[in-house]
Structures are given as structure tokens and as C-alpha cells.
């Protein structure tokens, strides 16, 4: 695949990932901007702090869908799984550093799940199971995301035959863990907020 074509797929993925569904959905529901309360993170978990579960669910679905769609579109145009992985990674980066929010985005958990779903549904289901189990046991959304990211990073190399795809997934996981650095500090200090608490 030519570099200009690959660059176009990645640019499309990045722009798709930059769509801030937390802000879009909150405005549609007449809610406060999610960047103005709670953790200030434009993501589904913070939208849930508004008390509107439907808005949070739609944010989650939108953020996951854009990750999946970036992969699907790349596969439709190129039929190259490695190119699709790069487009998915670009969508994830778009969510974390969105053009439309002055490059100050969310942590990318839902978008990462969408990318995984497009690349490897079994790996995505495994990640979701890790998140759900950890969240149910600890009530910490951030810890659940960290456990899921580490599990995926470990599983990606033996599970996927294509090293370039595994490398993209590991890069995604590394950025996700890095974006949770403030949460890691709070977890260690015992001050991290739990799911269901404002």
C-alpha cells in the first residue's frame, strides 16, 4: 500500500476519533459540559456522574463505534489488517488528542474497545470481560481499564499472527495506561472515586 493512501486512512481515522461524543451527547440532552465537572474527562464514565445513564450509555456507544468504524472503513478500502490497525490506532489517538477539543480528550477506553472489536472480536470480548470483572470486584473504573489494557497487551502477541497489528495494539494500550497516570496516583493514595459515586 502506498504511503499517501495509508496516510489518508490514518487521517480519516484520526478525524473520526476526534468526534467528542461526550460533549455532543451532553449538549443534545441539555447537560453540562462533561469537562466542567467530576474528573473533567470527556468520556462515558464522567458523563455518568451527571446522573443521566442514557447519555452515558450513548457516549459509550459512540466512542466505541468510532473506533470500530475506523477499522471497518480501512478494511473496506484496503483489505489490509495492518493498515486497519493503524487507522484504528489513529482513531484512538484522535479521541485522546481530539482536533475539535484543542487536543484535550478522553482516556480512550471505549474507543480502544471499538478498535479491538474491529480487529479481533475475541480479544475485545476478553478485554470487556476483564474490565467488567475488575469493575464488579473493586468498583474502580480506572483500575478496570488498567487491568484490561495490560491483559490485552500481554495477549496481543501470541493471539495475533501479524506483528504489526500486535504492535499497534500494544501502542494503544501503552497510551491508555499513560493517560491513567493521575488515576494511578489516586489509586495508590486511596483517593480514587468509585463507580456510582459522584
Tell me what the structure shows.
The chain has 198 residues and is mainly α. The chain has one domain. It contains ten helices and no strands. It has helices at residues 3-17, 21-28, 44-48, 53-78, 81-96, 109-119, 121-138, 141-159, 163-179, 181-189. α2 (21-28) crosses α4, α4 (53-78) packs antiparallel against α5 and α5 packs antiparallel against α6 (109-119). The longest helix has 26 residues, at 53-78. It is globular and about 50 Å long. The mean pLDDT is 93.
Structural descriptors:
198 residues, mainly alpha, 10 helices
Q: Topology of this protein?
A:
Blueprint: H1 3-17, H2 21-28, H3 44-48, H4 53-78, H5 81-96, H6 109-119, H7 121-138, H8 141-159, H9 163-179, H10 181-189
Quick synopsis:
With 198 residues, the protein is mainly alpha-helical.
Our measurement of the CA-to-CA distance between the termini, rounded to an integer number of angstroms, reads 48 Å
The percent range for helix content is: over 70%
CA-atom Rg in angstroms: 16 Å
Number of strands: 0
The low-pLDDT segments are none
- Report mean pLDDT, rounded to a whole number: 93
* Anisotropy-based shape: globular
- The topology string of helices and strands comes to HHHHHHHHHH
Proportion in β-strands: under 5%
Question: How many helices?
Answer: 10
The oligomeric status of these chains comes to single chain
What can be said about the biggest beta sheet?
Answer: none
Q: Into how many domains do the coordinates divide?
A: 1
Amino acid at each position: 500500500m502506498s504511503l499517501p493512501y495509508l496516510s489518508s486512512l490514518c487521517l480519516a481515522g484520526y478525524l473520526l476519533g476526534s468526534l467528542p461524543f461526550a460533549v455532543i451527547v451532553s449538549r443534545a440532552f441539555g447537560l453540562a459540559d462533561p469537562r466542567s465537572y467530576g474528573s473533567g474527562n470527556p468520556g462515558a464514565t464522567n458523563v455518568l456522574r451527571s446522573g443521566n445513564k442514557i447519555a452515558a450509555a450513548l457516549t459509550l456507544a459512540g466512542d466505541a463505534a468510532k473506533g470500530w468504524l475506523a477499522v471497518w472503513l480501512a478494511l473496506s478500502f484496503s483489505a489490509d489488517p495492518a493498515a486497519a490497525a493503524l487507522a484504528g490506532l489513529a482513531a484512538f489517538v484522535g479521541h485522546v488528542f481530539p482536533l475539535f477539543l484543542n487536543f484535550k480528550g478522553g482516556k480512550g477506553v471505549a474507543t480502544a474497545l471499538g478498535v479491538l472489536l474491529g480487529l479481533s472480536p475475541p480479544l475485545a470480548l476478553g478485554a470487556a470481560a476483564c474490565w467488567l470483572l475488575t469493575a464488579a470486584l473493586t468498583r474502580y473504573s480506572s483500575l478496570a481499564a488498567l487491568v484490561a489494557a495490560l491483559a490485552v497487551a500481554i495477549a496481543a502477541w501470541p493471539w495475533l499472527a501479524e506483528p504489526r497489528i500486535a504492535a499497534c495494539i500494544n501502542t494503544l494500550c501503552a497510551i491508555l495506561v499513560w493517560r491513567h497516570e493521575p488515576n494511578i496516583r489516586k489509586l495508590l493514595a486511596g483517593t480514587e472515586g468509585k463507580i456510582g459515586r459522584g
